[in-house]
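Bug report (template v2)

What were you trying to do?
Predict the complex of my protein with flavin-adenine dinucleotide.

What happened?
Run completed; filing so the output is reviewed.

Input:
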Amino acid sequence: MRFSRCKSLPTQKSGKRVAIIGAGPAGLAAAGFLICRGHEVHVYDMMEEPGGLLIYGIPDFRIPKKNVREGTHELAMLGVRFHMRTKVVPGEGVREGEIGFNEILRGYDAVIIATGTWAERRLNVEGEDLPRVYPAFHYLFHYCRVEAGYERLEDLPPLGRRVAVIGAGLTAVDAAAVSKRLGAETVYMIYRRTINEAPARRHEIENLIKAGIKWIELAAPKRFIGDREKGVTGVELIRMRLGEPDKSGRPRPVPIEGSEFVLDIDAALIAIGEIPTPPIMNKELKINPDNTIWVDKKMRTTMKGVFAAGDVVTGPSLIGNAIASGLKAAQAVDEYLSGKISWDLTP
Ligand SMILES: Cc1cc2nc3c(=O)[nH]c(=O)nc-3n(C[C@H](O)[C@H](O)[C@H](O)COP(=O)(O)OP(=O)(O)OC[C@H]3O[C@@H](n4cnc5c(N)ncnc54)[C@H](O)[C@@H]3O)c2cc1C
């Protein structure tokens, strides 16, 4: 997977320093662009290696980590400096493995925030904190760390024979496929709308159905059943019908009173969406109500010299969109550093 935009570097250096926070596809695409424009590029990331969700979210059978590693290695060869195991925190960094956002602001001519969506949305139903009810994003993170060689398969929390995956997006699809690979005999995919409204691509869901995954549409969890000792043993679902379109334009699922039924399960993976995680939350950086970072058409945030790109700007999206957004921000940074654009913003 290529992130760089050139084979060799320009002989003339710009003398400008750029910090990129987040080494996912958005940050890497930006790094690949800016290094080829003669800037000094430093990438900060809290994980062990660059790649973002390409390493820590998406399993190997979908995107091989080897291909991602080839691309990040090429960037390092071109001179991109990776500061791994370095979490960017508000203010000044005090603990080992941290760097303060203020330190970054002082040290660089421009900054790109590309920190993605690393928090999981909760269902907020009874029993969600029972043992073996996992946020799918979190479970896949550990599964991918096993694949990447940072954790042992034996330490992955057990799933058992019957797994319920709640949701129908990319995370849900991978969670269902991983559950099967880990030996689950029965995997249910439970979605409150129908297959036609599912965010995952149709062929992916059809592949799962072919692989034996049981699709339960028009149903939503009301509560998880079990206790702290035994863990989850069931999920109570309520049937839904489709109502008028909601803000997303899709028909709103409406619960059908009295239609509750119970499914026996040994584990549940909740995949109902991820939430953007900006590294700072202060008055100077405008954050939208859905936690995305506000940017203008040049990817400028409300802080001078600070740009943003990728899922932290759009909300959960796709690799191609993250790459395009990283390139757009990098292009704007290049224009800013060469004085072609200024900082005149009205959010
Ligand atoms: C399970 C799953 C499967 C998916 N499958 C597909 C697919 O098949 N096809 C597709 O196109 N898309 C898929 N996606 C979506 C795709 O992975 C994302 O859209 C893309 O990775 C977003 O890129 P990004 O660079 O914005 O963020 P990310 O890839 O999330 O990278 C963000 C980086 O920022 C770092 N970071 C976060 N906070 C800090 C901080 N405070 N300090 C330092 N570093 C920080 C993280 O460690 C991470 O490396 C999938 C997503 C998931 C969760």
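What did the reviewer find?
The chain has two domains: 17-117+276-337, 121-272. The longest strand covers residues 231-245.
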